[in-house]
Specification:
211 residues, alpha+beta, 6 strands, 30% helix
Amino acid sequence: MFAVLRSLVVGLVFLAGGVTADGDPPSITPKAEWIKAQLDQMDVESKWPAGVHIDWRTGLPDGEPESLVGKHTHCSAFVAAAAERLGVYILRPPEHPQLLLANAQNEWLQSDGAAQGWRRLADASAAQDAANLGFLVVASYHNRNDAKPGHIAIVLPGAKSLSALALEGPDVMQAATTNSARISLRDGFAGHRGAFEGERILFFAHAVDAP
């Protein structure tokens, strides 16, 4: 019964959304601010460095040689670590190796993720609303070439207008070639041509228990 009620709440709460016009900015709840503080403490800009073999939970180099070719970034490992910190499960090692994990997370969110409490959101506006309300929200892109990595990032609380969201999307926190504590969705996914412009980025939200 609780799972059903929670699903209804997650579905209805986004209809009330805070991003409704280009006038007054949306409110950001204390729960959303708490989540943002937890994410800030992870220090993504100095951990999960690209091109280095890392422990997925800590983002620190683990001393093992990096044998994979290419830049080998750690977006999916960072999201998995952040979700675990917040008490939320998303596909992660050892259930799936770090290689091509972002693509696998995208597929998992659209299938098994619902049973784990994840709900797909309609668009960037709904994603911003959910983040502002205190949900863990991820932006996920599956590369059309299954042999190449996708990308995933965490949507941050913010006060952007609808026009700003349409232009650049919500701000996100991510590990990438250069890690960012805050960057626009458009710029954060710029390495994947057509992902933002083609509206191929999906958004998912999960409730978080906060003190």
